[in-house]
Each structure stands twice: as C-alpha cells, then as structure tokens.
Design goal:
Number of strands: 6
CATH topology of the largest domain: Arc Repressor Mutant, subunit A
Shape: elongated
Structural class: alpha+beta
Order of helices and strands: HHHEHHEEHHEEEH
Helix content: 55-70%
Largest sheet: 3 strands, antiparallel
Oligomer: single chain
CATH class of the largest domain: Mainly Alpha
Distance between the termini: 81 Å
Radius of gyration: 22 Å
Strand content: 15-25%
C-alpha cells in the first residue's frame, strides 16, 4: 500500500492518486481536525464527509485506519467511540499538503465547522464512560471538559451494567443541572445560611 507522504511526493502524482484514491479523504480528515481546538469523533467527521457525498462509509473508515497506521492520528476511545487528535506527523502532513485540497472543499469544511462548532464542542467536552469494577460492580466516569481543562469528573459505582448505561445515556441532558447544583451546594449554601442567620439575629 502506498503511504500518504510517499504518494504526495511521487513523481507521477496522477498515477499515484489513482493507486491511492484515499489521499483526498485523508487530507480532509486532517484538515477538519486541524481547524478545531478539540478532538473530533469518528461519527462527527463522518457526518460531514458522508452527508456531502464525498465518499462511501467503507472508504472513509479505510482512510481513518490508514492515518492511524501511518501515525498521523492519535485515538482515544470513549464508550467505544473513537476521538481523534493530530500527531506531530499529522500536523506536518496537513501543513505541507493542505494546498492539495480545492477551495470549494476547504470552504465546505469551514462552513460546516462554523455552523456546528458549538454542538461539536459540547459533544466532545462531555464524556460518559463505564468499566467493570470489583465483583459485579461497574464504575461510571462522567466528565465535563473545556479545551484542555477538566471542569468536573465524577466516578460512581453501580451494581449493574444496565445502571451504568442508563447513567451514561442521561449525562448529556443532565450535566449542566448537576454541575450547577454542585457549585451551588459547595460554594454558596454556607454563605446563604450565614446571611439568613444574620437576618434572623
């Protein structure tokens, strides 16, 4: 299989592109990840590329696989969902070959990110995962992140896989209320009680 960089430097570039038709999709993936300051998931990237009709699901997943094999993407798994970061190799490649993407494709990508950045960021900043603990228990790990900062991490032990899945499935719709409750309870309750005591006295 022709490697990404080798193909881009190949003397007969047209022939190489025919041999490795995934090069365009690899560049699109790298460009998408480069243009945001948070990791993107496989499904988020696939949503754009497949909805626009650039390629098929099979070819796109092959492009992801080859980028990982070529050490251009670093992957983190959250509930079996892959989230991607650029490696130094990946950054170098997209900086070097970004010009290979046509202006319409770059504009499609930038418009997609401008339209959906808040939703993409929120999806990425929320993590809900679970894993087996001792005996028949499971540990549920819930996180709220903002860029590289961890705003909240909660670890809960539950007694069944079903409970773990249920909590994970409801984290997205309840995270803001839970975060607000904790902040209120831990930071402001004592102040409110003190104020009430002063008023009563």
């Amino acid at each position: 299989m022709v490697s990404f960089k080798k193909c881009m430097f190949h003397k007969e570039r047209k022939d190489c592109m025919e041999e490795n038709g995934l090069t365009l999709y690899k560049l699109m993936i790298l460009f998408l990840i480069k243009k945001v300051d948070f990791p993107l998931s496989n499904s988020q990237i696939s949503e754009f590329i497949l909805d626009k009709g650039y390629t098929t699901y099979f070819k796109l997943q092959q492009a992801f696989h080859e980028l990982e094999d070529e050490d251009m993407l670093r992957t983190e798994l959250v509930r079996n969902a892959s989230h991607y970061f650029l490696t130094e190799e990946g950054k170098e490649a997209i900086d070097m070959f970004e010009y290979q993407l046509s202006e319409p494709i770059r504009n499609d990508i930038l418009t997609f990110l401008a339209t959906k950045e808040y939703q993409l960021r929120e999806e990425t900043n929320l993590e809900a995962d679970y894993f087996p603990a001792k005996r028949d228990e499971y540990t549920v790990r819930l996180r709220i992140k903002e860029k590289d900062s961890m705003l909240l991490e909660v670890n809960l032990n539950v007694v069944s896989r079903e409970q773990a899945i249920y909590i994970c499935d409801h984290w997205k719709s309840n995270h803001s209320d839970i975060y607000a409750y904790l902040i209120n309870r831990l930071l402001f309750q004592d102040q409110s009680q003190e104020a009430e005591k002063k008023t009563d006295s």
